[in-house]
Design goal:
This protein has 13 helices and no strands. By secondary structure, it is mainly α.
Length: 256
């Protein structure tokens, strides 16, 4: 306690932020108490209240710092309109993965369940802002490629969601390094984007495809219904070929 008491106000604040970030990352906002924060920082509860007004204030500071760090990384990756589109995808993937690698606790805080007191400062709002930037970049790329831009907002959400959820999985299962994972993300995203169809359709599961399949089945059923005798004879021949041979012999003798 004597060493802790020699901290300046700034040092104490930074210590509490570090302690709070670690606890929020490990347990989530709801499961952490002011008592636990104070105990881990080896200070009394009033010190926590003095600096942050409670765990809500501390949590808000932790989230704000992590949001600014991640925002700066992603915006930097998306802020060069002259870069090749693939380079932008690579930069964005690496930017997020670098943040996850260097700020593991902060990332866990952002993606965990959190109080909805400030929706504008939430992780989902950040992803919304990033998606809008990606959307603008995609729109320009689509126009240059003479592709319709109606689906651009959805493609933006796909790219951002794919990268973020892959990053979450990687944070728990870091079996490859960030460059390798970024290469996998870009491989899927870019090789898909480079072969976009102007009007893509589901081959089997769309309403149109199912209608065509039902129509085809109806035609086949109708065709089979037109010649039931032929179908019966074929079935009989397969099951009792000797009976048909005997019948044919008897018919021949009768004719003779």
């Amino acid at each position: 306690m004597s060493i802790a008491s020699r901290m300046t106000s700034f040092q104490r604040r930074e210590q509490l932020i570090a302690v709070g970030r670690a606890l929020f990352a490990a347990k989530g906002f709801e499961a952490v108490s002011v008592e636990e924060i104070a105990a881990n920082a080896k200070v009394s509860k009033p010190i926590v209240y003095e600096h942050f007004g409670g765990k809500e204030g501390l949590y808000a500071v932790v989230v704000d710092r992590e949001m600014r760090t991640l925002t700066d990384a992603l915006i930097a990756a998306l802020s060069d309109p002259e870069a090749h589109p693939r380079q932008i995808v690579e930069r964005a993937a690496l930017g997020l993965l670098t943040y996850i690698e260097e700020h593991a606790e902060g990332f866990q805080v952002l993606v965990r369940d959190s109080p909805s007191t400030d929706p504008d400062g939430s992780f989902s709002s950040l992803l919304g802002d990033v998606s809008l930037r990606v959307e603008r970049l995609l729109a320009d790329s689509f126009k240059r490629s003479k592709l319709p831009t109606k689906g651009v907002p959805y493609y933006a959400q796909m790219l951002v969601g794919m990268t973020v959820f892959t990053g979450q999985y990687w944070a728990d299962q870091p079996k490859v390094n960030k460059e390798q994972l970024a290469a996998h993300i870009v491989n899927l995203a870019w090789n898909g984007l480079s072969r976009l169809q102007a009007k893509p359709e589901l081959r089997f599961e769309s309403a149109k495809a199912k209608k065509e399949a039902a129509k085809q089945a109806a035609q086949e059923h109708k065709q089979a219904a037109k010649s039931p005798d032929v179908a019966d004879e074929q079935e009989l021949q397969q099951e009792h070929p000797e009976d048909l041979n005997q019948s044919a012999t008897e018919t021949t003798k009768a004719v003779d």
